[in-house]
Amino acid sequence: MITGKTKLIAHVGYPTESFRAPMIYNPYFKKHVIDAVVVPMGCRAEDYSQFLPLLFRLSNIHGALITMPHKVTTLDLLDEVMTTAKIAGSCNAIRLTPEGKLIGDMFDGEGFVRGLLRKGCVLDGARVFVAGCGGVGSAIAASLAKAGVSHLRLYDAYAPIMHGLADRLKMHYPSLTLELGENDPSAMDVVVNATPLGMKEGDPLPMDVSRIGPDTFVGEVVMKQEITPFLQAVIDKGCRYQIGSDMLFEQIPAYLEFFGFRTTTPDELRDVAELSY
After folding, report:
1. Residue 30 phi/psi, 5° resolution?
2. Residue 37 to residue 200: CA distance in whole angstroms
3. Do the beta carbons of residue 21 and residue 38 sit within 8 Å?
4. Which domains does the chain carry?
C-alpha cells in the first residue's frame, strides 16, 4: 500500500509506454515489504531541465531512474557525477542525499559486467572488443575499465563518438591500452555487440563472426529477441555468450544498492517480473 511515508522513485523519460521498470521493481518491493514505489513520469525533452529540479523538491522523493531522451542532459543538472557516468557521458540513476545533493551514476555497463562475471568470465587483465560507442557502448566500456580489463579495442562507424569515449577513458584510466577504428573482433577474450544491429529483421551482422575464436566470450545488448542472429552465429562456433536482457536484470541489484535498498539476484527479479505480467 502506498502511504504518505512511501519513498518515491520517479522513472523519467518520454514516451513511457514501453517502460518495464515498474513491473520489476514494484512486485519486488511488495514481496519484501519495502515501502517504496517506482512511478513512470513522462517528460518531454524541452521541459526536462526545469522539471528535474522541481521533482527533487518533493518531500517524499528518494531518487530517480532516467531513460531516453534525458540520459545525457542529466549530467549538467547534478551536484556530483560518478566516474562511470562521466566516462559514459550519460546518467540513468539519481540519488538524493540527506544533505539535499543530487548524485548521478550509470548502471547499463555495471549490469553488463555483473552478468559476465556471474557467468565465470574473467575480466581482470582481459582483452575486449566493443563494437558501438554510443550510450550503451560507452557505459559498458567504462564498467569494463573499472573491472580491470587491460586492453580495449573500440569501434564505431561515427568516429567522433569513438574518439570522445577514448579521451574520457584515458583521463580516468591512463594505464588502459586503447585501440581504435577497426571493426575486428579477432584475438580478443571478450567481444561485445553494443550496436543496434539485430533490432530489425534483415540487419547485417555487426562484425565478421569468422574472426571470433571459439574460446571468446560474446555479449549482446539487443533485447528484441533472446538469441539474435549474431548470437546464433557465435553459438554455432561454440562461444559462451550473454543475451541482451541479462544486462537489464543484472543492473537492477546495483540500482537497489545505489538507492540503499535490500539487494537481490537477477533470478529473483525475473521470477517477480513474470508474475507481474
Report:
1. -65, -45
2. 34
3. yes
4. 7-106+247-276 (3.40.50.10860), 109-242 (3.40.50.720)
DSSP letter string, 92-143: -EEEE-TTS-EEEE--HHHHHHHHHHHTT---TT-EEEEE--SHHHHHHHHH
Distance of alpha carbon 146 from alpha carbon 140, whole angstroms: 10
Rounded Cα gap, residues 159 and 161, in angstroms: 5
The closest alpha carbon to 195, from 152, 241, 154, belongs to 154
Residue in the structure block whose three cell numbers are 512486485 = 27
State the residue for C-alpha cell 549474431: 230
Radius of gyration of the chain (CA): 19
Would you give per-residue pLDDT tens digits along the chain (277 residues)?
A: 899 999 999 999 999 988 888 999 999 999 999 999 999 999 999 999 999 999 999 999 999 999 999 999 999 999 999 999 999 999 999 999 999 999 999 999 999 999 999 999 999 999 999 999 998 999 999 999 999 999 999 999 999 999 999 999 999 999 999 999 899 999 999 999 999 999 898 999 999 999 999 999 999 999 888 999 999 999 999 999 999 989 988 999 999 999 999 999 988 988 887 666 5
Pairing verdict, β 7-13 and 102-105: unpaired
Q: Report the C-alpha gap between 119 and 130 in whole angstroms.
A: 19
**Residue 235 CA to its chain's centroid (Å):** 23
Using DSSP's 3-state secondary structure scheme, residue 53 falls into: helix
Residue 69, preceding peptide bond in cis (omega within 30° of 0): yes
